[in-house]
Design brief:
The protein contains four helices and eight strands. The chain is α+β, with helices and mostly antiparallel strands.
């Protein structure tokens, strides 16, 4: 699976937020992330991000990332609340979760996203003599 790009992170206790670059891979990655949380009522999470389903006509159409602008999805269950907000160029994930789910989200992000440094951050690292991957 293609890795996504992370633009920013923050956390305090049970609250975490992540800012991702909006690209075509993000829908599949988010589906996998949200599905990985022990979310018993989450059977349609893949459909939320990947397909537009018309139950009246019994049709299913694959969704495009360009369709997700100013869109918000909320998922909750025992021990967590997660909001995914799609902007024009960025995707924001806000979570308030117990320790176990918070650890899972942070680990998932570190394994499936790469951190994108800005030119300013790169220059600061070079001046400080730090090696960059």
């Amino acid at each position: 699976m293609k890795k996504g790009k992370i633009l920013g992170i923050g956390n305090k206790d049970r609250y975490s937020y992540f800012v991702f670059k909006k690209n075509s891979a993000i829908l599949l990655i988010l589906t996998k992330m949200i599905s990985g949380i022990s979310y018993k009522d989450c059977s349609g999470v893949g459909d939320t991000f990947l397909y537009d389903i018309d139950h009246m006509k019994d049709t299913k159409r694959k969704r495009k990332i360009s369709e997700f602008v100013d869109d918000r999805s909320h998922f909750s269950g025992k021990g967590f609340d997660v909001d995914v907000i799609f902007g024009k160029n960025k995707v924001f994930l806000l979570s308030y979760a117990n320790e176990e789910i918070t650890k899972y989200l942070r680990k998932f992000v570190s394994e499936n996203f790469e951190f994108k440094l800005t030119k300013k951050q790169l220059n600061l690292h070079k001046k400080a003599g730090k090696k960059i991957k």
